[in-house]
Amino acid sequence: MRAALEASGLDHGPVSVHDKLVAMGLTSPSTASLARIFRDKGVARVEPKKRPRAAYRRFVYPAPNACWQLDATEYVLTGGRKCVIFQLEDDHSRLAVASHVAAAETSDAAIAVVEKGIAARGVPQRLLTDNGVALNPSRRGWQGRLVEYVTSLGVEAITGKPYKPTTQGKNERFHQTLFRFLDKQPIASSLPELQAQVDVFDRIYNTERGHQGLPGRITPQRAWDATAVAEPPKPKVSYIEPLLPDPRGIAGQGAIAASIGETPPPTEPPLARRAVAARGSRLLVIRPTGSAKIRGIEFQISSRLAGQSVLATWDETTVGFVDQHGETLAC
Q1: Cβ of 293: how many Cβ atoms within 10 Å?
Q2: What is the rounded CA–CA span in Å between residue 73 and residue 80?
Q3: Whether residue 219 has pLDDT greater than 60
Q4: How many CB atoms lie under 10 A from the CB of residue 256?
Q5: In this model, does residue 274 exceed pLDDT 50?
Q6: Rounded distance, CA 65 to CA 70, Å?
Q7: How would residue 163 be classed by pLDDT, with cut points 50, 70 and 90?
Q8: What one-character-per-residue DSSP string does 195-253 give?
Q9: Which of 7, 145, 216, 294 holds its CA 20 to 30 A away from the CA of 111?
Q10: pLDDT digit string (tens) for 95-144?
């Protein structure tokens, strides 16, 4: 049984072997006996310094769709060509909500996997990602396209602290399980072929493989079905104040002053409006010289990008340029 699980690319430790034997209606030794047998046969190594599972404190959201975790990981196709696999996981049930294979880690691909997950499971209350440019660059000083999309649905976009990958530990472990499965499959020659392999993995992961991080080691689908799904968030409504002329405002005062021969007051915008102008974003086209101009200052980026559209974002201290794939060009 251990050899069969290993050949299939599935977990094949004592717990996994025990649960598989029980699921097949067979009598199984205890997990401790299985561990001893595996050590005696030399197919498992002794790890005396490894902390027991009971020593770890876990944080779990109380219901499905209360929080999703999204992360991307690199993989390869035939010929050593690199690609990216986006994995979307429900924090409460550990369910594989959706997966998406893409050529690169871009905002479009990130939005595509979230749209796929929403179509299948509904809208989550929160979305946890790392601070990558294609996912959530809020800590870098600007708002990414994925954040804009989920925020428009009422989803709270949250991130872990930089250089603290344990915040996304469930998704990191999810990647390892996927890699173990894919490494036992033929190397895919195209993105659609790899996507088909990932889809098979998601089905096995959700419905056939007991999850050791869940109570009773049930499957993620059973954990999802056991608890009522969290209420979807309400989309936030943005109110935009119309820019209508005010006869009692600065323009009106200037007209009145001119009619009586006085010098009109200055038409400089209010302080609040000037403060807002210190922050912003704009879609620009790189000049033939490889530069772009923001607020009267010309920034040299690269002549190789001449004619391409870039998104420029700025605040009081920083100016950043991002290409159409969500990659940072200069900051």
Answers
A1: 11
A2: 15
A3: yes
A4: 13
A5: no
A6: 13
A7: low
A8: HHHHHHHHHHHHHTS--TTSGGG--HHHHHHHSPPPPPPPPPPPP-------TTSHHHH
A9: 294
A10: 999 999 999 999 999 999 999 999 999 999 999 998 888 888 887 777 78
Here the tokens at position 315 are 């605040």
Is 14:38 a contact under the CB 8 Å cutoff?
Answer: yes
Task: Give the residue-averaged pLDDT of 72-79.
Answer: 92
Which of 169, 141, 152 is closest to 115 using CA atoms?
152
Query: Which tokens belong to 163?
Result: 């250089």
Which residue type occupies 105? E
CA 82-175-18 angle, to 5 degrees, is 135
The single-letter code of the amino acid at 170 is K
Contacts of 172 (CB under 8 A, 6+ apart): 71, 165
Residue type, 9: G
Confirm if 70 and 113 have CB atoms less than 8 A apart: yes
Q: Which of 86, 63, 65, 64 is nearest to 74 (CA)?
A: 86
| 108 closest CA partner among 71, 146, 73, 81 | 146
Give the three-state DSSP class for 191: helix
**Helix or strand run (H / E) with residue 101:** strand 96-102
Q: Report the candidate in 253, 247, 248 with the shortest Cα–Cα distance to residue 265.
A: 253
Integer CA distances (angstroms), 41 to 3, 34, 38, 45, in order: 12, 11, 5, 10
Q: What are the respective helix, strand and coil percentages of the chain, to the nearest 5?
A: 35, 20, 45
> Among the listed ranges 40-54, 203-217, 235-249, 314-328, which one has the minimum average pLDDT value?
235-249
pTM for this structure? 0.59
Report pLDDT for 162.
Answer: 66
- Characterise 180 by phi-psi region: left (phi > 0), alpha (psi -120 to 50), beta (else): alpha
